[in-house]
Specification:
Helix content of chain A: 25-40%
CATH topology of the largest domain in chain A: Nucleotidyltransferase, domain 5
Strand order of the largest sheet of chain A: 3-2-1-4-5
Shape of chain A: globular
Shape of chain B: globular
Largest interface: A-B, 40 and 29 residues
CATH superfamily of the largest domain in chain A: ATPase, nucleotide binding domain
Oligomer: heterodimer
Number of helices of chain B: 5
Structural class of chain A: alpha/beta
Order of helices and strands of chain B: EHEHEHEHHEEE
Largest sheet of chain A: 5 strands, mixed
Bound molecules: adenosine-5'-triphosphate, magnesium ion
Number of strands of chain B: 7
Number of strands of chain A: 10
Chain lengths: 354, 148
């Protein structure tokens, strides 16, 4: 089955071509046009305008055709394709519309089935994407599974009973985990993007040097809150200004902030995994690229829930991309007919599993 | 006018009181540094307008829309709350380019914008109101509210 995936829910425009035969991924090509990141405000993504997505989308499809067939031949790509999927939400309305409309226009023109995909479901399915040079990632008998989706805009814990069967167990009440990285990095003067900058700065630091609050770590619900970390870091910096010049101090500070964020994510995920009796924990989203998070979650599960398998996505598929959208579409096509391209609409607030 | 906010409860009371004075079409700019309490204020404001959903930080997605369900808000022509955040914007045209004006211009919408200092064109609107959040010690904040 040959699938075209399209994604434009926020900053990045992306397209992908995925060919699955049997259980094997026999072909996977993906192209992402990331918005240029400026550093001026420490975390600013310019040109989020939908017109950027619209300007890029045809070129991306041309590039995709070139990669798949060696020529920029749209009609031939159309003949090759069995179905088309595009992200319909959640995200920014005007951005979403570009990807969804491109997808359904192609579906109409080429007369192919069309699937509207939830962006978060896409992230979950990044776990099914094999690494470069591989054809498969064995993902049988993994249900029920618990997915932790962590990115700049999302922090969600989803119980996945089967393909397409989700229950939202918890989410952030304020800032997303990736946002907490970006904003505390800004406060520490470390620049953008916050996650990698903090990991880098904290690599040689003592992560237990400063005991930042771990909000809601012991609460009875499965929600998260990261906004308080900003104020905690701000006050700490104010009270220790003179020391900030020292690089050891900064690396202890960065390592401690990273540890606080990771501790909350890991503790709650492991607790929910045990409580809900899942077989597998899946990690997904841009923050899934964080090494400390991957390692801590793996280790904590190994100790506290040794029967639970841990699956993490390939690094290249953690951030927004269209390959994950195509993979989510593949699994949807296994169990339902497509959406009517005449009727399908964007859903900026689409919450998976609620 | 400067208002002393000693804790979250003070902030909630201030937001509830503020919500009562809003009308459809109003635009509120929130200015203040990271962690000053802009989003927290909007959470209280939204609850006072009868928004049922949880209000989260809009930094990443830039704009979120909510339905107001409070009958006393209907009397003041408020049906919708738009929560925007200019933190990630470098050029203010970006928000206008995605059709932000259509949202703000709606007569039944109250628009609240975090980091409004990055969207100076808002100030030209006759319905614009500004709240500046300043840090005091600990939980304390000072809100500087423009006259209306
Ligand atoms: N009196 C207070 N007023 C506001 N916030 C308070 C107060 N006391 C404590 N806080 C805490 O400070 C934090 C404020 O974070 P919040 O995300 O609301 O700030 P913000 O101004 O929206 O920041 P950003 O610039 O990142 O958008 C919250 O965790 C809140 O609970
Ligand atoms: Mg905020």
């Amino acid at each position: 089955m040959r699938i075209i995936g399209i994604e434009s829910s926020c900053d990045d425009s992306a397209v992908a071509y995925l060919d699955i035969e049997g259980d094997q991924v026999v072909r996977l090509e993906h192209v992402v046009a990331s918005q240029i990141i400026h550093h001026q405000f420490g975390g600013v993504v310019p040109e989020v305008a939908a017109r950027e997505h619209s300007a890029k989308m045809p070129r991306l499809l041309d590039e995709l055709a070139q990669r798949v067939m060696g020529e920029e031949n749209g009609p031939r790509l159309g003949k090759l394709t069995d179905l088309i999927c595009a992200t319909a939400g959640p995200g920014l309305a005007t951005s979403l519309r570009v990807g969804l409309d491109t997808g359904r226009a192609l579906a109409a023109a080429w007369s192919k089935p069309f699937y509207a995909i939830n962006h978060i479901e896409g992230h979950v399915y990044s776990n099914w994407l094999p690494g470069l040079g591989q054809t498969t990632k064995i993902m049988n008998e993994i249900f029920p599974a618990l997915a932790l989706v962590v990115s700049g805009g999302h922090t969600e814990l989803l119980l996945m009973r089967d393909h397409g069967d989700y229950e939202l167990l918890g989410a952030t009440l304020d800032d997303a985990a990736g946002e907490a990285f970006d904003k505390t990095a800004k406060l520490m003067g470390l620049g953008y993007p916050g996650g990698p900058k903090i990991s880098q700065a904290g690599a040689s630091g003592n992560s237990r040097a400063i005991d930042f609050p771990r909000p809601m770590i012991n609460s009875n619900n499965h929600n998260f809150s990261f906004s308080g970390l900003k104020t905690a870091v701000r006050y700490f910096i104010e009270q220790n200004k003179e020391q900030l010049a020292g690089s050891d101090f900064t690396s202890d500070l960065a390592a401690s902030v990273e540890q606080a964020i990771v501790d909350v994510l890991v503790t709650k995920t492991v607790r929910v995994a045990i409580e809900s009796g899942v077989q597998t924990v899946l990690l997904a989203g841009g923050v899934a690229a964080n090494r400390k998070l991957r390692e801590s979650l793996r280790e904590a599960l190994a100790v506290e829930a040794p029967d639970v398998a841990f699956v993490e996505p390939e690094l290249i598929y953690c951030t927004d991309n269209a390959a994950m959208v195509a993979m989510a579409g593949y699994w949807q096509a296994q169990r339902r007919a497509g959406d009517d391209w005449r009727k399908v609409e964007i859903d900026p607030n689409w919450e998976l599993g609620r | 006018m400067k208002i002393a906010i000693n804790n979250l409860d003070d902030l909630r009371k201030f937001a509830v009181d503020f919500a009562l004075r809003l009308r459809g079409g109003d635009v509120v700019g929130l200015i203040g540094d990271l962690g000053a309490g802009k989003t927290t204020f909007v959470q209280f404001l939204a609850a006072a307008l009868g928004v049922q959903e949880e209000v989260k930080s809009p930094t990443f997605v830039l704009v979120r829309e909510y339905i107001a369900t409070e009958p006393t808000a209907f009397e003041r022509n408020i049906r919708k709350l738009v929560h925007a955040d200019a933190y990630r914007l470098e050029d203010e045209d970006e928000l206008w380019a995605i059709g932000f004006a259509d949202l703000v211009d709606d007569a039944e919408t109250v628009t609240v914008v975090e980091w409004a200092d990055r969207l100076p064109a808002l100030k030209d609107r006759s319905t614009y109101h500004e709240l500046r959040f300043e840090f005091d010690i600990g939980e304390k904040r000072i809100i500087d509210s423009s006259e209306r």
